[in-house]
Predict the structure.
Amino acid sequence: MRAFDYAAPKSLNEAVSLLSRRGDRARVLSGGTDLIVQVREKRRDLDLMVDVKNIPELSEIRYEPAAGLALGASVACSRIYEHPVVSRVYPGLVDAAFLIGGIQIQNRASLGGNLCNASPAADSIPALIAHRAICVIAGPNGGRELPVEQFCVAPGRNALQAGELLVSFRIPAPPPRFGANYIRFIPRNEMDIAVVGCGASLTLREDLKTIAEARVALGAVAPTPLLVAEAASALSGSAFSSESVDRAAIACQAAARPITDMRGTAEYRRHLVGVLTRRALLKAFERAQEAANAR
Amino acid sequence: MPDKARVRATINGEPADFLCEPRQSLLEVLREELKLTGTKEGCNNGNCGACNVLLNGLLVNSCLVLAVEADGAKVETIEGVMGPQGLHPLQTAFLENAALQCGICTPGFIVAAKALLERKPKATEAEIRHWCAGNLCRCTGYDKIVRAVLDAETRMGEGQ
């Protein structure tokens, strides 16, 4: 690998000042599962890696039933699915964290890194969107927040400005009768990149049939992960039924702008969008009912 | 060229103190500076698991860890698997079940399988296959590897 400097700041201020000083010649190192490969394969050129894993705000998991979850951007996937509360309350995140790479990758890769890498096919992004996650960003001019669905701007490009750093996700506590799911299609069982991914969440009314609120997000069918507002409006206020789910699936197929590449044709991807939307919604519905019955 | 960094870690229970450049992976330092060549380089991009080590108890690809990140950490490699009594039951089981051909993937599989059995001494075949999804073997077709891990479970259950 080409030579570069390494810094491991212990505070946000220190990290922001390093990133501001070195501009686009610096890059944040979290789990390194994308960044180290990119630098080694000369797909990314940099002078400084800023290891953020020693900064408390980036490595914490803090859950409070009223406030919800503060999930540090560099928390490894395995810490998410092994966390007794998070794994129960945020099932969509667990689905995604459990299928990114193998165990070795899950012990290093973080949802913050997965988001900042901004791959159109990133598994955790539709799940984060389904859970209404908000990015907490620190920078030279102070902090700001941005919904996850606005964070990716193009393949491999995110909304961070010079000197800015993704600190954590603020994820609201799910309401009662809430369920979520993330699924993807790959042509084998493990260790592959999504041909299509779908994250969905549903909140049910007290009758446990009518949908109060819905979120559906798609991966790998557009330059960035998509939140499909039309799918949510096709579901909200309706009973959960094959008709309402079909309307959402058709809305998702209309919103998808897939390309043809080595993983599948555009036509195949559009078909998969329908299949995965139906499956993700059904699983989210079952989980919402289970959550209601467990209370 | 950036200055070399001093790294102090614990490797297989022994203190290690070395200098490295930030661009050197933990894999590179283990093999080329510390001469612990049991850990293998396969793909060097996080797909194959030949370079598996435990970092603070967690299974990782050492090709995707910078050596400077190991400062203060506990690292366990294939060289630390054998105990004072001789081969680890997993090593015996790999030999007796002919679970290797060329052998390049073997240290990674054994380090991975040991981490699994320490968490789950009675892992099922499906759990073994899932856990080892990040380990590639181009010779065996995996069946003998999975059978060896199941055999090691039996041996370890019997206290061998």
